[in-house]
Write a structure and sequence with these properties.
InterPro entries: Aldo-Keto_reductase, NAD(P)_OxRdtase_dom_sf, NADP_OxRdtase_dom. This protein has 321 residues and is an alpha/beta fold. Helix content is 39%, strand content 15%.
């Protein structure tokens, strides 16, 4: 799992399914299933979900899409994020007894008897990471989980987790405008032989110029609103000009930058339409010269605003300094 581009997952990208369960506004299950199945047909076989996406809706959707295709996909499942009936965030729970309960329900919703990668969505400050990883290791030995992953944790937590059981993969946000993992996290992954699935490659649609619609939670995020949004729109317009000059779509430029910058790792993209899927599959790594041109247009740190609101930023172990 150090490099997701295995025989069972030959493409250079993975499919993140969160957006198919309402995170960015209204969705259509039939279209989502068509996208998942088309992605599998094109060799995009690593599917990322969370048991809290749509409060279980996402797993049920994936089950419908992969029926008869389970042997063709790898399922990555996050757990631990709690929801209230009004869909608000209710904290994190990664206790051993809780995660084994979460997995039991995930297996039923997904219609499978194992998941390929199981990972806590966030670090639980009340539970030592050793306890969480040890409990998942029990599930590995029992055959319910194939590999253990992590999400949005920093170097100290990664080291502690890896001492309990081999870690296959870290899920972390990374894009032209979110580059902090380059400092300490990526070097540590290389040292320990851990792979990474990189989400937020399009910065939640910011880099692609995706419009905000009714029910879209991005309307409340720092990079999209107020003066930050106006300043960032100017930077994004410059990137779009560069993409047009090269004959690329803005999405292909952003994906190509990540592929060129971090060739060991796998971008995880929230493709919700067949057009988005086609664009992403056609993306190719940018050359060193083009990487430099992109970074001249949008230098590191140029984007205004944090990637999450302040309250959520405070929950990210990966942001600790």
């Amino acid at each position: 799992m150090n490099d997701e581009r295995t025989a069972s997952n030959p493409t250079k990208i993975a499919l993140g399914c969160m957006g198919m369960s309402g995170a960015y506004g209204k969705t259509d299950d039939a279209q989502s299933i068509a996208v998942i199945q088309a992605a599998i047909a094109r060799g995009v076989t690593f599917l990322d979900t969370g048991d809290f996406y749509g409060s279980g809706h996402n797993e049920l959707l994936i089950a419908r899409a992969i029926a008869g295709r389970r042997d063709k996909v790898q399922l990555s499942v996050k757990f631990g994020a709690l929801r209230s009936p009004d869909s608000n965030f209710g904290g994190v729970d990664t206790r051993p007894v809780a995660l084994k309960n979460f997995l039991t329900y995930s297996l039923v919703r997904l219609g499978t008897d194992y998941v390929d990668v199981y990972r806590p969505a966030r670090l639980d400050p009340a539970v030592p990471i050793e306890d969480t990883i040890g409990a998942i290791a029990d599930l590995v030995r029992a055959g319910y989980v194939r590999s253990i992953g992590l999400s949005e944790v920093g170097p100290e937590t990664i080291r502690r987790a890896a001492k309990v059981h081999p870690i296959a993969d870290l899920q972390i946000e990374y894009s032209i405008v979110s580059r902090d993992p380059e400092d300490a996290i990526f070097p540590l992954l290389a040292e320990l032989g851990i792979g990474a699935t990189l989400y937020g490659v399009l910065s939640r649609g910011l880099l692609a110029g995706s419009p905000i619609k009714t029910g879209d939670h991005r309307a409340h995020m720092p990079r999209f609103s107020g003066a930050n949004g106006e300043a960032n729109a100017k930077l994004v317009a410059d990137l779009h000009g560069l993409a047009k000059h090269w004959g690329l779509t803005p999405s292909q430029l952003a994906i190509g930058w990540v592929l060129g910058k971090q060739p060991r790792f796998v971008p995880t993209l929230g493709m919700r339409t067949l057009q988005q899927l086609d664009e992403a599959v056609a993306a190719a790594p940018l050359t060193a010269e083009r990487l430099a041109e992109v970074e001249a247009v949008v230098p590191r740190g140029a984007i205004a605003g944090t990637r999450y609101p302040a309250a959520l930023m405070g929950t990210l172990d990966s942001e600790k300094r």
